[in-house]
Each structure stands twice: as C-alpha cells, then as structure tokens.
Amino acid sequence: MTATVPGWVEALATHSPPAMDPVVGHLVVVAAHPDDETLAAAGFLRAVHAAGGTVELVVATDGEAAFPDAPPADRAALGRTRRAELHAALEALGLPGTRVTWLGLPDSGLAHHEDELTGALAPLLRSADVCLAPWTGDPHPDHATAGRAAERAAPVRAHRFAYPIWMWPWLRPDDPAVPWATACEHRLDEAARHAKAAAIGRFVSQLAPAPDGGPPILPPEVLAHFGTGRELFFRVPRPDSAPAARFADLYADGADPWDTRTSWYEERKRAVVAACLPRRHYAHAAEPGCGLGGLTRVLAGRCTAVTASDYTPAAVAATRETTAGLPGVTVLEAALPDPHTVPTGVDLVVLSEVLYYLSPAAVDAVADRVAQALVPGGDVVLAHWRGWPAEAPQDAAATHRRLLDDPRFVRLVEHVDEEFLLHVLRRP
C-alpha cells in the first residue's frame, strides 16, 4: 500500500472537488463485485433515494473468487453469501427495496467477458439518467473491465460517473492517473456515516480472516479509506462529439427541448449576448448551431447578413420559419466544423450552446476555421451553460479555455454568472 488516509484527506482539501448532485432521477450503479457500491458510494445512494430518485444496482460477478485457493464448492457458497450480504447492506442503508440485477459472470475473469458484459449492461442502462460504474483506472482488472463496459453501454443521454476503490490504498493522490480535473465528491452527514459503516459491516466474508487464517480482504487500514465521510467520483466525458441522431431525437415532432422560446434563462442570455457585442453593427455574422432561431432574430437586428446553420433538419426548418421576412438571413443545414457554417469574410461568429458538444479535436478545428474566416478586427462570441450536458465531451469552462488560450484571439469581454459563461474574443 502506498497511500495513507491523511494524505488523501489533504488532497481532497487541496483540490476541493465540487459537490455531486444527488438529484438525478434514475441512477444505475454498476459493480464488479458485491460491496463495491457500498464501499464507494453508499452515502450517495442514500442521498439519491432521499431526493426522490430511483436507485438500481447491476452486479457483474458474485465475488466468489475472493479467496482464489478455495475449492469450487466453497467458491459457490461464498458467491451465495456475498449476494445475501449485499441485500443486508442495502437494508442497513435504508434501501431494502433496491432492485439488484445479478449477471453471474466469473469473478477475477471479467476481462475475458467484456463484450458479454457490455451487451448485458446496454438494456439495463437504457433508461438511466446517471450511470455510476467503477473507474477504469482503478488498479483491479475486474473494476477496470466493468468501467469500460459501462462506458460503452451507457446511452448518450446518460451522465456517466466513475468511482474508485483500490485507488485509495494502492495509489498516491499525486499519481498522474488520478483525474482530479473531473472529480466531484459527496459528503456524508453523521447519520449517513453510521449507516454506511453498518452496511460495510454486513460484508462479514470480506472483513473476517481468510479461511486459511490469512488477512481479510478488507483489513482495517483499507477500511479506513471508506470511513472519512467523503466519497469521490470522476466525471466520464464522452470521447467524441455528440451524435447528430441525438439532436434529431430531441427536436422531433416540433419539440423545443431546452425551452428556448419561453425560458427566462434563454431570454436573459440572448439579452446579455446582445449587450456584450462591442459594435453597434456588423456586416456578416455566422451562427452555427442556431437551434430554433431565437438568437438568430436578435443577430438579424444588428447585422446586414446572418448565416445561421444547424445539422438537425427540424431545427433548420424552425429557424427558417422564425426568421421568415427578415432581410439578409440565410439558414443552412450544416454542422461544425464544416467550413460552410463559418463563411469566409465574416466579422462576427456566435457560438452559443454548441461548442461543448464537440470533441476537443473538433473544437480546435473550429478555432482554425474561425481564425481563417474572420476578418481582422472581427469578433467571436462564446456563450454556454455552466453545467455539463450528458452528451458533451467538455464543460463550458474547458471549452472556452481552448479559444481563450489561442494566441490568434484576444479577450475583450468576460461574463460569468451562476448559469452561463460568456466571452467575446477578437481577431487582431
């Protein structure tokens, strides 16, 4: 073991991860073995339940190979015991009715069944709002496999988070593998700490000495890492840009998925964007990802020409209807980083609620296109919700940073409030 509890507590204080939101609707927790979910996330499961959410568990193995030298009959008996222990732990947490799906895959052999596990998880995760699974960097092969399978199986609409277990005793807080940049935490109150301790105590098979008299699977120095009252999770961002099909579904049947026509957030953001434009008038603006055209109408009042675009046919049709009769507005069906979305010679580019849906590589390609197409002295507006959409590879801050750090642009305006982040940049 390489890490101490005080070392990790100090690291948590230093990094100060944001709080994990327990208001998640439907939470599906994937575990490689019975007790993983309790060790890593018992407090958070209680909080989700208390907030009115539904908690569901999927356990890949029965944990029957905890003592690898045991004969087959003893392994089978241990698997039955560990199933019973998990149900007892859920009762101790106040979650006795929690649905548990047992997949019965081989313990300590998940790596040979990753595709099978992925296929089994896909239908079980289909309705999840949040998927919580083992961290793929955890130094246990079954945990890493379960994490990879869950990442592959989770639907695009689900927020994905990972939890560590053996990271705590086996890695150091300064290990470069620990993704502090995407970390968040849940803090347990006194009642939750007692409930979690009671739940862990139900896993007697893991706390007692091994059948041959050896040390337990979870000795006191390991258990201490799970009694600090803090649970750590890592956001698992999408590796690629959000798929076009997702937005086609959202805009189906004339839907307004983000209430852009009626919400105060959208109305206020459009007003702030307009107020932050440094010039009274622009010759030609580009607005990729125009959605239903609410901001397009605002831009049309400040620009001689506007080229709006979206890669969802329903959104394009809606924007054309919204802007019908406005002079100089052209609406294209095209997606970033297609050069047609930012025509050469524009003096304003507005990227609102669109850029964080692109992969980092695609964002860099957009930056290249904007730098090429924008006339000297032209402006770029970046405006994004400060949350993190499930479909997005990056949040607003990380996305904006890629252009803020680009020497081809200089910062003119920065607006940060509790809901959205806005920057205006200029090409010198």
TrEMBL record:
Keyword Calcium among UniProt keywords: no
Keywords: Zinc
One Pfam family it belongs to: PIG-L
InterPro entries named among the record's database cross-references: GlcNAc_PI_deacetylase-related, LmbE-like_dom_sf, SAM-dependent_MTases_sf, SAM-MeTfrase_NodS-like
Keyword set includes Zinc: yes
Protein name: PIG-L family deacetylase
